[in-house]
Amino acid sequence: MKPMRPCKRERLIESGLGKIRVRPIARVAGYWIGEDGSVWTSRPLGNSKRKPNTLRRVKDYVRQTPGRGFGYSQVCLRRTGSRRVLTYYVHALVLTAFVGPRPTPEHEGCHGNNRRTDNRVFNLRWDTPAGNAADKKRRGLDVDPLSELRAELTAIAEGIDPGPIPF
Question: Which CATH number fits the domain that encloses residue 87?
Answer without folding.
Answer: 3.90.75.20
